[in-house]
Every structure is written in C-alpha cells, then in structure tokens.
Amino acid sequence: MRKIIQNFIRYTEAVSKAVGRFSQYIVFPMMGILLFESISRTLFNRPHIWVVETSQFLMAAYYLLGGAYSMILDGHVRMDLLYGRLSKKRQGVADTITGPFMIFYLIFLLIGGISSIDYAIRYGQKNYTPWAPPLAPIKIIMAIGILLMLLQAVVFFIKDIDKARGKESS
Amino acid sequence: MSHELIALLIFSSMLLMLLTGQRIYAAIGGVATLFALWLWGKGGAEMPYHASFILLNWYPLITLPLFIYMGYMFAESGIADDLYRMFHVWMGPVNGGLAIGTTGLMVAVAAMNGLSVAGMAIGASIAMPEMLKRKYDKVMITGVIQAGSSLGIMIPPSVVLVLYGMIARQPVGHLWMAGVFPGLLLAILFALYILIRCKIQPELGPALSLEERRQISWAERFRLLRAGIIPLLIIFSMTGLFLMGITSLVECSAAGATVTTVAAWMKKRLNRRVMEDTLRNTLSVTCMFMWVILAAMSFGAVFDGLGAVHAIENLFIKQWELSPWGVLIMMQVTYILMGMFLDDTAMLIIVAPLYVPLVIKLGFNPVWYGVLYTITCQIAYMTPPFGYNLFLMKAMAPPEITLADIYRSIIPFVLVMMVGLAVVILFPPIALWLPNLYFGK
C-alpha cells in the first residue's frame, strides 16, 4: 500500500512539473499573436478574426495547466496570521483538516468541467463569434488542468497527514 | 433563514476558513461551492466551473500574465539601476533626498508596470541597500518602498483598474487616464511627508556628504539624465500607443512585454537564468491571482444569487438612512476594514460588483469611483494583518528589516494615503480632468 502511494505521489508530481514547465512558455505565443495582430492591423490594415479567441484559449490553458505546478512552487499565498506561528507539525494538522475542503472544491470544478465537455461534444458546441471555433478542445484542456490540480491536492493531503504525524515524507 | 443572515454566515465562514491558513483560492472556492450546493442543490453544482468560462471570456485578463512577465523582466533588466543612480545623484544633497528620489523612481517604475511587485523588488534590491549604507532610518525607507511601489496599481498601466473596468463595465482608457494625477498627487504627498519629517529629524535621512558629492562630476550628472530615455520609450510603446488608439489594451501589454525583453537583451542582461526565473515566477504569480479570482467569482455569484446588491442598498439607504456621501464614505471604510482582514484580490472581485451599481445609482461618476477604489486597494494591500505587499516586503527586504519594522513603517504612509483619498473625494476633477480633456466629454 505504502509503495502504491509513494508511486502515486512521485508520478503525479512529475506530471504536474512537466506540464507546468511546458505551460510557462505559453506567454510567448500569447505575446507573439497579439504583436502580430497589432502590426498586421495597424500597418497592413488586415485584422484577423481568430486572434481574440486564440489568445483567450491560451490564457485559460496557461493558468489551468500551470495550476498544479504553481502549488508545488508554493505560489499560492495563505493568510499566515495564525498559521505562520504554528510549528511544522501543527501546520500539518491544520492542513489535514482543511485539505479535504480544497479537494471538495476541485472535485466540483472537475464535475462541472466534465459535464461541460459532454455537452460540447454531444451538440458540437461552437463559440458565438464570427470565427466560431469548436469549444470541446479547450474544454478538455481546461479539465485536464483541473484534474492535475485535484491530483496534486491529494498529494499534498497525503503529505500533510505525514507531517501531522511528525514524519517528513520525501 | 433570511438572506441577510445567510450572507453574514457565508462571509464569516470565509473569514474562518482563511484564518486556518489554507490556500486562499481553496478557502474561498470551498466556501462558495458548499453554499451553492446548500442553497440551490444540484443547480449549484456547476457554479464553480461556470466561473472559469466567464474568466475565459474576460479578454482584458490576458494583460495580467503579460504585465507580471514585464515586471519581472524589468526588475532583471538593469534599466532601474541607472534610473536609481540618476535620482540618487540629483536628489542626494537634500536631507531625506534619497528617499524622495526613491519615490520618484517608484513613479517611473509604476509607469512601466501594472502591479506593485516590480517596484517592490527594485526598491528592496537597489534603493534600500544604498539608503541603509548611508544611515537612513530603516523604518522610514521600508515605508517609502511599500508606499511608493503601491503606486504601480494607480499610475497607468494598472491591472487593478483593468479588473475594475471589467467589473464596472467602464472603458480602461478613461480609467488609466483618471489614475495619472491621483497617482502623482500621492507621490507628491509622500515626498512632502519625507521632506517635512527629515526637516524636523535630519538624522532619519542624512544628506550626501560633500566629498561624496564632489566625486560626481557635472558631466556625469548630465550623462545620467539619459537613463530616463529607455523608460520613456517603454512608456510610449505601451501606454502611449494604447492611449493614441493605435493598439488595443491587450496588445499594449504584449508590446510592453516585448519591448522590455528587447531592452534587457540590449543591456546584455538577458540570459538563460533570467529567462527561466522570469517565466517560472510569472506562471506562479499569475496562477495564484487567477485561481483566487476564479474562486472569488463563484463566491460573488453566490452573493449575487442572494440579492446582496439590494440588501446592501437597503441597509445603507433605508435602514441607516445615509446620504449619498455617507454611503460613499461607508463603502470606503468597510472596504479598508475588509481589506485588512480578508484577501485583497478576492475582495476586489467580490466587493466591486456589490458597490458599483449603487455608486452609479447614486449619481456618482464610476470612473472617478474606480480611482477611489484603487487608492483603497493600495491601502488594503499594505495594511496588516493581511496584505500581499507585507509578505512581499518581508521576502525581498534585507534580513535586518524585521516584520515589526515593516508593520510600523506603513503607519504614516497609510495616513498620508487617506489624506490623498480625501482630497480626490473632495476634488473629483483631479481624477476626471485628464480623461475628459483627452476623450472630450
């Protein structure tokens, strides 16, 4: 059992890191597309209808796919008025109690995401814009990001239990 | 249970969850989901996800990662070093002059950044060691950097005004223009405070010694003025082109990010490590903000579903019988209080949709209110026990600056900012003159 859990932690973190490292480069295509559009529109008078949505999709992918990695980087602030004064072990206890809350939120995000994908595929949903791109692909990417975040939250929960019991897990 | 009571219950649950020290997005999102399920059952189950689609369609949000990227790149680019040197040399001879110069530096940085992070990083890494070396009072300079860097969200470009513009449905161009003079006003008030304080207590900010001044030739002094050229180019290519109507808002942030990268490259500061750090920090900070905003949107939706806008209107106008000005002042006071104890970014998302309709209904100008809102935000970000700027400052400042120093340092500056807030409330043209002139109203 211990072994399975350890593998779960190892693989989840590896995937979160790999996906996060990939998504941190998404700022470049965002910058590139917007720059291309501003030059193309102002100098050559040729605007493109796909620019707004493509950059919106990139943005959604950026912060959702990067979410799990940002948790590993400890980028999410906490209100440490009380928490900051606790010992490591006590912090583990606090997180073990509130961790399921985070998992609960992410589960509902995922449920919403999956039912939205289901709808998009079943009805071939397209965006209400002149370009009208299909929405299923971006919804699947968003759900993958949320799923990773959920798995990462579970990993933290397991680690917090160890911390609460006074063991420092690797 | 009455709606008011439920609203109160939701707010106190959020406060309780935040106090446990769980990650902010999780605390807020969890509370929102729980209450959505309780109030609307199955219909509430998709509410958390729905927020992500609203965010997807908030096009101006794309400026967030790009401005954050730009801030980190700017801090690494070395442009700020020359700029600091310029202020150092020109302002040094006055008592407290380096602190005033730092305020000037912060204004320049704010004009190239939409958040306060870059100003904080530059202030803590460049200006602070120089001032400590010259025996400036550490509490005062900590305050200067905190207050100065908070101008980042007031002087255009400003991410807070972009968020406000989305929520209040106001044009960002007007809002940015409206932020120019209030931002400068605050900077002048900070400088005046430093000047007066150092007149009374010269030991807080000793002037540069004569021999140190002699070492700098006049040729050198004038050469340093050129340090201002690159910043002007960045400001022009970003804010300038946007306000001239050439680039769109989102495009202007991309232009700014690109130009800053090129500037860093020309200054030979761009290497693998800088790039890697910038990208990782940008991702980390953007995700933090976006997930908080995502959770706060669901929270706001629950509040909206309860009819909180009407409840507040009812409370302020019918029950407490406040005048329009009374309502306005009450809104700022409650916002500052909430900003002290709750998460500042989440407050921005949750409180603005509640207050803005009321502001418009009472006949106030929503662009002007955006400026008031931003000043209040600046104060909220600085005030303990909870404020991002406090955390950032602790993380970035040299180790001899303790948390107690940081807490003490902000007191006079928060008071000065409240004076600034009062001045803008009393004289709306400070904010509105420029946008009205420019956009011709």
Give a short overview.
Chain A has 170 residues and is mainly α.
* Helix proportion range of chain B: over 70%
- Tally of structural domains of chain A: 1
Computed CA radius of gyration of chain B, to the nearest angstrom: 22 Å
Could you give a short account of the major beta sheet of chain B?
none
Q: Mean pLDDT score of chain A, rounded? A: 89
Strand portion of chain B? under 5%
Listing every helix as H and every strand as E from the N terminus to the C terminus, the arrangement of chain A reads HHHHHHH
Shape of chain B: globular
Structural class of chain B: mainly alpha
Average pLDDT of chain B: 86
Total number of beta strands of chain B? 0
Number of helices of chain A: 7
**Biggest pleated sheet of chain A:** none
Structural class of chain A: mainly alpha
Number of helices of chain B: 22
Alpha carbon gap, first and last residue of chain B: 48 Å
Biggest chain contact: A-B, 58 and 61 residues
Radius of gyration of chain A: 20 Å
Oligomer: heterodimer
- Helices and strands of chain B, in order, run as HHHHHHHHHHHHHHHHHHHHHH
